[in-house]
């Protein structure tokens, strides 16, 4: 053996929002779904487009376009909801499309340049260079903040999202 240490590649799910490539650690992803019915939740944070029923589980859905760019994401046939694990429970992320799972070496990911002057640097953990493509790596826990999935679930009746939405209006 040559004595060289093998560098471990980490898996990232690559997706797009507003024509920009983003990635999240594959370990946080539970599943990817087509966009189904999303029920709006009154007085929710602006980036929360509502809740959806995922096999009997009420799942808050965050529009990543609103969270990252401040504009509502147009829903197309390629739009998806990425279900992720967060400390307060599962949440959905509405994205424009999912591209692939890619493996990146740690030296392919750079820190976010200071010159970017990001208003919310906590959302970005780094920038990856994969060939000619640049992928912004996001911190999922921070992308769903200030969404409190436990609070949203406590307001929603798990048996019927429609009834839960009506309760919120009272």
In short:
This protein is α+β, with helices and mostly antiparallel strands.
Indicate the topology:
Blueprint: E1 10-17, E2 20-25, E3 29-34, E4 48-54, E5 57-63, H1 64-69, E6 80-86, E7 89-95, E8 97-104, E9 109-110, E10 124-130, E11 133-138, H2 140-143, H3 149-155, H4 161-169
Short descriptors:
alpha+beta; 4 helices; globular
What is the CA-atom radius of gyration, in angstroms? 17 Å
What CATH calls the topology is: OB fold (Dihydrolipoamide Acetyltransferase, E2P)
The low-pLDDT segments are 147-161
Tally of individual helices: 4
Arithmetic mean of pLDDT? 78
For the secondary structure, the number of strands is 11
Strand content: 35-45%
Q: Please, how many domains? A: 1
The CATH architecture: Beta Barrel
**Overall form:** globular
Name the helicity range. Answer: 10-25%
Query: CATH superfamily assignment?
Result: CheA-289, Domain 4
The main sheet comes to: 6 strands, mixed
Strand order of the largest sheet: 8-1-2-11-10-9
Q: Please report the first level of CATH classification, the CATH class.
A: Mainly Beta
Please provide the ordered H/E string of secondary-structure elements. EEEEEHEEEEEEHHH
Question: What's the end-to-end separation, in Å?
Answer: 70 Å
Structural class: alpha+beta
């Amino acid at each position: 053996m040559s004595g060289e240490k093998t560098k471990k590649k980490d898996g990232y799910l690559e997706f797009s929002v507003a024509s920009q490539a983003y990635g999240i650690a594959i370990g946080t992803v539970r599943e990817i779904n087509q966009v189904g019915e999303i029920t709006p939740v009154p007085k929710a944070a602006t980036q929360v487009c509502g809740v959806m029923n995922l096999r009997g589980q009420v799942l808050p859905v965050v529009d990543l376009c609103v969270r990252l760019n401040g504009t509502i994401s147009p829903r197309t046939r390629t739009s998806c909801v990425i279900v992720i694990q967060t400390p307060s429970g599962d949440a959905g992320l509405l994205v424009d499309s999912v591209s692939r799972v890619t493996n990146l070496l740690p030296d392919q990911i750079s820190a976010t340049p200071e010159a970017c002057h990001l208003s919310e640097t906590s959302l970005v953990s780094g920038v990856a260079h994969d060939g000619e493509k640049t992928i912004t790596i996001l911190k999922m826990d921070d992308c769903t903040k200030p969404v409190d999935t436990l609070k949203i679930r406590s307001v929603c009746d798990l048996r019927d999202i429609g009834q839960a939405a009506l309760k919120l209006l009272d």
